[in-house]
Specification:
Oligomer: single chain
Strand order of the largest sheet: 5-2-6-7-12-11-10-8-9
Number of domains: 2
Shape: globular
Order of helices and strands: HEEEEHEHHEHEHEHEEEEHHEEEEEEEE
CATH superfamily of the largest domain: Class I glutamine amidotransferase (GATase) domain
Distance between the termini: 85 Å
CATH class of the largest domain: Alpha Beta
CATH architecture of the largest domain: 3-Layer(aba) Sandwich
Structural class: alpha+beta
Strand content: 25-35%
Largest sheet: 9 strands, mixed
Number of helices: 9
């Protein structure tokens, strides 16, 4: 009898252990392996290739000294445009050097960096002219804000719109988000901006190469309440490089959506080279880009689904673009009838869909491995010309 009881107890213990293992297996499959097990490919009219290219080093970022003022209530010295603070918050992938103005004026030092943040301050316009021209023309990515307008205008006079050069009063305003990709990223058509000091500079640039991202109506400085409308954030190419100028900047009182906007700005700067690569991939196959999403994830997760409304039956090209820094991403594309295509990649991925049906095409990106948090990437959809 004791042996029978022992047998029953052993059998019960074995069954309990089996059930526990089964539960662990099910939990692992349901909750943890969604990123590890690719979706079965049911979309058959697809071809793809991965643009391996060469190994890419981590981008070198640099920030210049910003202007500052003394708070009359706290007597604390406050910086106008503390981009270093924002870059630190974004994490290890956004390590940067702090430059002196002597460093910036000397073209050799500036050429060591892929992206330079020329933060809000005054002066050195004549000394910066040739240096900035040379840096951007040869492929540098330059951000400048507010009072650095004069330096950018002197370096790139062909981009200046003199009729828009009207300083603004201290004020708050609702800016229109002109760029479709930025509207989607922020989930809004307008953004509330605060200008805590007078004499701030609008983004007074224009011409066919200037892309306006934000625009707004504002009260002009010392003009008896008169208003003007001008761009507040623009982007334009020069040679092999890119310039981004904003009227606003990073301050301690930025709202949540303003902070989102500034993060988007940083991501767009570090992926400027990726944009050029994606455009090349589109042109190679005779495609025209119709929609582009600038995305990132703080960790190993899947982005919110994005939708492309295909209005005409024909060929589509999806390009998942990112720098080859050690990331592993998964692109999932779903057709209007629910068929799917999934592919993992470690560098820019090009996917062509032949005879794509009319309707909504959705796509997501899953981060399987990242070199650092907030790693940015883009998904661009193009139609055959």
């Amino acid at each position: 009898m004791p042996e029978a009881i022992k047998y029953v107890i052993d059998a019960a213990a074995g069954f309990a252990l089996l059930m526990a293992l089964l539960v662990v297996f099910v939990v692992d499959r349901v909750f943890f392996s969604s990123a590890a097990a690719p979706t079965v490919n049911t979309l058959t009219n697809v071809t793809f290739y991965e643009d391996k290219g060469r190994d890419v080093k981590r981008l070198k970022l640099a920030v210049t000294p910003t202007g500052s003022f003394k708070d009359g209530f706290t007597n604390k010295v406050e910086k106008w445009d503390d981009m270093s603070k924002l870059l630190h918050e974004l994490g290890d992938g956004y390590r940067h050097d702090n430059l002196t103005m002597e460093d910036v004026i000397g073209p050799r030092k500036l050429s060591e960096y892929d992206v330079v943040f020329l933060t809000c301050a005054d002066g050195y316009e004549d000394e910066l002219k040739n240096t900035l021209q040379d840096y951007v023309t040869k492929g540098g990515i330059l951000y400048a804000s507010d009072w650095r307008y004069k330096a950018i205008a002197k370096a790139f006079p062909e981009m200046v719109a003199k009729n828009l050069q009207q300083d603004g009063e201290k004020q708050e305003l609702e800016a229109d988000i002109v760029d479709a990709g930025l509207r989607e990223a922020l989930g809004a058509k307008k953004i509330h901006l605060r200008f805590d000091l007078p004499e701030w500079k609008p983004a007074a640039f224009g011409g066919p190469r200037v892309k306006v991202l934000l625009q707004g109506s504002y009260v002009k400085f010392k003009a008896g309440g008169q208003r003007a409308t001008a761009p507040l954030m623009v982007k334009f190419p020069v040679g092999k490089g890119t310039v981004v100028f904003t009227s606003f900047h990073n301050e301690k009182q930025n709202s949540r959506i303003e902070t989102q906007l500034l993060k988007y700005l940083v991501f767009s700067l570090v992926t400027a080279g990726v944009d050029a690569e994606v455009n090349t991939q589109m042109d190679k196959g005779g495609f025209t880009a119709q929609r582009s999403n600038l995305l990132s994830t703080p960790g190993l997760q899947t982005t919110e689904p994005k939708t492309y409304a295909n209005k005409n039956a024909g060929d589509l090209r999806f390009v998942l673009g990112f720098r080859n820094e050690g990331a592993k991403l998964r692109l999932n594309i779903k057709s209007p009838d629910g068929k799917q295509f999934t592919k993992d990649c470690e560098s820019t991925l090009v996917v062509d869909v032949t005879g794509a049906a009319v309707g909504d095409w959705t796509y997501t990106v899953t981060a399987l491995s990242l070199p650092y948090p907030n790693f940015p990437f883009t998904v661009t959809v193009g139609e055959k010309k």
